[in-house]
Every structure is written in structure tokens, then in C-alpha cells.
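Researcher: I'm preparing a figure for a lab meeting and need a structural model of a single chain. I don't have an experimental structure, so a prediction will have to do for now. The sequence is pasted below. Please return the structure as C-alpha cells so I can convert it later.
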Amino acid sequence: MTVAAFRAILAGDVCVRPASVANPLSMRAAAEIGYELAMLGGSVAALEILGAPDLALITLSELVEQVRRIARAAPLPLLVDGDHGYGDALSVRRTAIELAAAGAAAVTIEDTELPGTGKQLLPIATAAAKIRAGIEAGADIVVVGRTNAALVADRAELFARQTAFEHVGAEAIFVAGIKTLDALDALAANARKPLILATAIKDATAIDVAARGVKIWLQGHQPHFDAVGAHHRRLHLQRTGEEPADPDPRPLTKRLSQSEDYVRLAKTYLS
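Model: Understood. Here is the structure written out cell by cell.
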């Protein structure tokens, strides 16, 4: 049922803003508030499962179990960030099957070398083969092709990846790095499948992007940062009787997840 609901969003005339969820309670909150769609982001999954930054450190089995816990909490379609699919094309096939069994409605598979910085693009043929493998697994899940080309390459490269992923059967194309309506216009002109947008566009509305074929537009993962901040604040008050010095949850989350240590380790071992 949730897969059909996700496809209905892709086929609709409006742009849906999904709820960022991390666990069963946030999934139930999203359903209670009236969201049409929930998303488990890769960064949120890493923080929730490992307390670590988004460097593709979690395993497929860890992600699947978290998805299972979230998906069974409410009958809301769940879009899952599948990162690199946890390996090669055969691993992507298994990722699609396992996430479908866990209750995910859709999964994004991206075109970057991971583990890593997320900025090294795979060859187009390799990336397209991974997406095709996920689709041809035959699981009851929507496979979305994700590209980071707009972050690190020119428009020609972006359009080539968009076209290749559409050609192998991706039901939607997820794009990070589009920051202007002009750039979105160019992307939309090349599109044959619905678009999912990851980044903010200044002064644009959901109506603006819906007119350009965007069916889903992420709102970021601030709810999870806020939750970390609220928990830290309460613990601090209980222990000291005072408010913590830094109320901003983003640097707090970065510190608690030992982000600087992981950056250093990545430079040491992944460069």
C-alpha cells in the first residue's frame, strides 16, 4: 500500500515536502501531523544507529532493521536513502530486496564512490548498472536514481546521468546541488521522469518547483538536530541546574558524533 502511495505522489500534480524521521516515534508524529511522506536520510540513519557522521559507516543489516522499526510504526510511505547500495550492483539488488521486505516504499541509490566524501562520481555505466540491478531485483519498492553531479560537475554531466538513469528504468531522479530556478529549469527541460530535489532554492515555493516537475522536495533534517539538542539540554539542566552554553544543536551534534575525528580518519585512510 505504501509503495502505491509513493507512486501516486510521483504521478501527482503537487510537490510534497517529506518529514525527516529517525525512529518509530518520529514516524508516528509525522503521520499524526498529516505528512504524506517520510524520509530516512543517510546522515540521520548514521547518527541514530551509530552516533557517527554520514560516511557510509553503517551496514545494510543495520539500516534494514532501523527501517523495519520505523516503517511498522505508521502506514506512511517511507523513502530511504540507500547511499551507494552497500557495494556493487549485486549488493544494490540485495539492498532493494531487503528494504522492500522491511517496509520501505522507495530507495535512492547514488552515483558516488562510497565510503568517501560523496564527491567522487562513479562512471555513468557503473552507476546506471547499479540502479538497473536494484530495479530488476523485482522487489516491491520504487528505485530512485540519485546523482550528485550538480555538486561536482557541469550541466552536461548532470544531464547525461539523468538520462542514463531514466533509460535503465529509475522511476524518479533525485538531484542534490540545484540552487537556482534557472538550473532547475534546465534540469526539468531534460527530464522524462519525476524529479526529487534535495537542496533549497532561494525564494522558490513548492508551487514553483512543482511546475517544473519536482514531486518531492526535501526540507532537511533539522528535526533530528533539534531532538539531539533538546535531549542534551535536559540532561545538562538535570545535572547542573543551568542551561548549556551553546544552544545551537548543529555544532553540538557534530561534536557528539565525533565528526572531526572521522574527517581525520577519512583523510588518513581514504585519500
